[in-house]
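Incident log, structure service

09:12 report received: a user says their structure output differs between two submissions of the same chain.
09:20 pulled the input from the user's history:
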Amino acid sequence: MDFDTIEDAVGRSGLRIMGGFHGGEAATIVLIGNAGPDMWAAFSNATTSDERASGINPLDEWTRLMLGEAAEELGARVLFPFDGPPYHPFQRWALKTGTAFVSPTGPLIHPEFGLWHAYRGALAFHEHLDLPPPPAGDSPCVTCADKPCLGACPVDAFSPDETQAGGAAYDTAACVAHIGSPGGKTCFDGGCLARWACPVGREYGYGGRQANFHMVRYLKTQSRL
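09:34 re-ran on a clean worker, output below:
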């Protein structure tokens, strides 16, 4: 088994390898996620608008199906971030791969994709696979003096807090209230302005329908808490 074979299997769904590491729940764990519009294109082509509007998150169910098929083909066990509790520690796993870093706003930043990526699942292999080296260098946030992400939120949902990961606290209630209000239409339709303010990976930014889909799902998820 090699990374090219894994990439071919998951790439049919617009997904991609987001790094890997040895140990934990298997000999090798390979994180699978998305960046840019490829996954959204595959998901949109495979579902109707009614299906995409149904339930809490139809993308999770589609991902379960796609990665389940890939795992069977590759002889791997598939793990998901949305199965739980208890939940698998995907954020910690991502940091272990060396391909992601904590950003000033808290979410993980990728040196190429910026804040426009997500982890959709993981493939656990009994084999000790050869892993490609992670990108060289530190987090792109280290050399970003202005930190525009921290000042872009219209309701200041991100505030300095050295006790939090990344040095910022996130006011979930303020964010949710704004997105769900008439004044939050720009965020609701086009995605988080703090993410757009980051200069890294803007070419992978989500288009309008994809961004709006995630915002709708975010509001639905928060309403259940």
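09:41 both user submissions now match this output. Likely a transient worker issue. Closing.
09:42 reviewer note: The longest strand covers residues 26-35. The radius of gyration is 18 Å.
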